[in-house]
């Protein structure tokens, strides 16, 4: 049976994450090995030539699933008919830039992109925001797309989730696939909280298997939360291949579902669960089924976790209030 190709719009296509991401989308890792795709690349005018170079390389791979590549510098055109949008391009923080300047510069990107999605994307559009500050950029885009169901806008914390799984598996000397039900709560920032109290490792409770609160508080949590900065320090550039891999994992899970009895982490619109104010885009434990993320309900949150979740959510509240004050939402 011939399937209609899925239109995947990628912003920031000529950047380092774009370079690590596009080849995996085109080879079937984003949606599945039997799903043809058409790529729609969005760049700023200065980035278009480099995106054309990447498109030449994509052609040269002769990927059977890749049914077309178009390059744009206009978000309305780039999101026309999009079924999946990966919002990677963002304004990075540069020396001397205040937080408000960073939020406004990104508001100038994610507001218009949200509107372009609202006006032009396909009815089944699903958005993953990768560009930082990811949660708040997703909130801005979602606020500019009143006709799109809010739950189609998500922010990436899957990289944090994967980092936490890897650190825990090393500590316990087990395979990464033995780790289940780990959760990243809150913001994709240094305040995020990787929670192992509900996680299972080879069928045992992870916190009980670790049995070392000092390691948890002083090693595990800071290592995961500050991993982005450690990569920049070591590589001289921010994480790119691992970020692209996490974006692939996020969308693949969203569309193909979580395994029975397991969950993952994603920044999704809060429905007020776990005391996270409604409407914030915060990371939660989520399952995915029939193309929808659902927040896992009913977990007992202990004092250790409560303080840390609240601190990260408070940071999201402050970011939301700042973009509100700037008139960006
Ligand atoms: N959520 C997460 O876990 C992670 C997020 N990130 C973030 O992802 C973003 C991208 O990272 P890199 O690819 O390394 O950056 P990069 O600087 O290599 O590439 C960004 C690209 O976006 C383009 N761009 C800028 N404004 C644009 C706009 N308005 N429309 C379309 N394209 C635009 C630039 O021309 C550039 O080619 C950064 O904000 C970074 O902080 C990075 C790693 C992990
Ligand atoms: O700070 C950055 O740009 C990179 C980042 O988000 C991460 O690696 O988690």
UniProtKB/TrEMBL annotation:
<dbReference type="Pfam" id="PF00056">
    <property type="entry name" value="Ldh_1_N"/>
</dbReference>
<feature type="binding site">
    <location>
        <position position="106"/>
    </location>
    <ligand>
        <name>NAD(+)</name>
    </ligand>
</feature>
<feature type="binding site">
    <location>
        <position position="93"/>
    </location>
    <ligand>
        <name>substrate</name>
    </ligand>
</feature>
<dbReference type="Pfam" id="PF02866">
    <property type="entry name" value="Ldh_1_C"/>
</dbReference>
<keyword id="KW-0560">Oxidoreductase</keyword>
<feature type="binding site">
    <location>
        <position position="163"/>
    </location>
    <ligand>
        <name>substrate</name>
    </ligand>
</feature>
<dbReference type="InterPro" id="IPR001557">
    <property type="entry name" value="L-lactate/malate_DH"/>
</dbReference>
<feature type="binding site">
    <location>
        <position position="99"/>
    </location>
    <ligand>
        <name>substrate</name>
    </ligand>
</feature>
<feature type="domain" description="Lactate/malate dehydrogenase N-terminal">
    <location>
        <begin position="7"/>
        <end position="146"/>
    </location>
</feature>
<feature type="binding site">
    <location>
        <position position="113"/>
    </location>
    <ligand>
        <name>NAD(+)</name>
    </ligand>
</feature>
<protein>
    <recommendedName>
        <fullName>Malate dehydrogenase</fullName>
        <ecNumber>1.1.1.37</ecNumber>
    </recommendedName>
</protein>
<comment type="function">
    <text>Catalyzes the reversible oxidation of malate to oxaloacetate.</text>
</comment>
<dbReference type="GO" id="GO:0006099">
    <property type="term" value="P:tricarboxylic acid cycle"/>
</dbReference>
<dbReference type="InterPro" id="IPR001252">
    <property type="entry name" value="Malate_DH_AS"/>
</dbReference>
<dbReference type="GO" id="GO:0006108">
    <property type="term" value="P:malate metabolic process"/>
</dbReference>
<feature type="domain" description="Lactate/malate dehydrogenase C-terminal">
    <location>
        <begin position="157"/>
        <end position="324"/>
    </location>
</feature>
<dbReference type="InterPro" id="IPR010945">
    <property type="entry name" value="Malate_DH_type2"/>
</dbReference>
<comment type="similarity">
    <text>Belongs to the LDH/MDH superfamily. MDH type 2 family.</text>
</comment>
<dbReference type="InterPro" id="IPR022383">
    <property type="entry name" value="Lactate/malate_DH_C"/>
</dbReference>
<feature type="binding site">
    <location>
        <begin position="12"/>
        <end position="18"/>
    </location>
    <ligand>
        <name>NAD(+)</name>
    </ligand>
</feature>
<keyword id="KW-0520">NAD</keyword>
<dbReference type="InterPro" id="IPR036291">
    <property type="entry name" value="NAD(P)-bd_dom_sf"/>
</dbReference>
<feature type="active site" description="Proton acceptor">
    <location>
        <position position="188"/>
    </location>
</feature>
<feature type="binding site">
    <location>
        <position position="132"/>
    </location>
    <ligand>
        <name>substrate</name>
    </ligand>
</feature>
<dbReference type="InterPro" id="IPR001236">
    <property type="entry name" value="Lactate/malate_DH_N"/>
</dbReference>
<feature type="binding site">
    <location>
        <begin position="130"/>
        <end position="132"/>
    </location>
    <ligand>
        <name>NAD(+)</name>
    </ligand>
</feature>
<dbReference type="GO" id="GO:0030060">
    <property type="term" value="F:L-malate dehydrogenase (NAD+) activity"/>
</dbReference>
<keyword id="KW-0816">Tricarboxylic acid cycle</keyword>
<dbReference type="InterPro" id="IPR015955">
    <property type="entry name" value="Lactate_DH/Glyco_Ohase_4_C"/>
</dbReference>
